# Entry
Amino acid sequence: MYEAVFVSDAHLGSSKNGKFFLEFLEDIKCKKLFLIGDLIDVVCDNPEPILDDFFKIIKNKECEVYYFLGNHEKENPNIKKLLNHYYKDKKLYDSHIYNGIKYKIFIEHGDSFHNKDIFNRTLKYSLYTLKKFLFKNKDKKAKLASKKGIYYKIKPFIRDILYNSFTKYMINQAKKNNCNAIICGHLHHPQIQQSNPIYVNCGDWLKYNSFIAEDTKGNLELKIFK
# Structure
């Protein structure tokens, strides 16, 4: 049994791996379970079987469950209806400090980065504007093909800049809260970076099927559920 398990970005309601994620939830044994945002996808607007099963499982878990709101929950126009239906009178978190065995951990989904980091907003807007400009003439196929090449060459470079900016921002979030570790999601990129504070990203259940586990000695480990 783990001391704590951290997981994010299952995107239930749109993910093909939804049933696999529920299998993981039923199987995992821990004292504390942190669901760090984007568990429900923004397009999921009504109660449906996958959500029935999800909330039934977390309500029946024999551990403390912490549910964090990610940007997909916050942007979902029907999230209040869904949570009132499934998770009424339960506490919901934007952020939380967890005093683990080895680390004092600041936890949040990570979407606050987009609201507070001006550099990130400028870069994302620039990429969006470039994409809109390059793809506007869809009828000119030959021209479009060459323009697409430019876009896809630039995109990884900008993505790397954003990833580095995100990591620095989240590390500063931990520092501001006097924590020596940060655990987040949002980027869909599983990682443990031995920085100071330690940066940890849960990854996702669209591609990686990853989660973070705190063992009985307080060590944080990146795991893949297979």
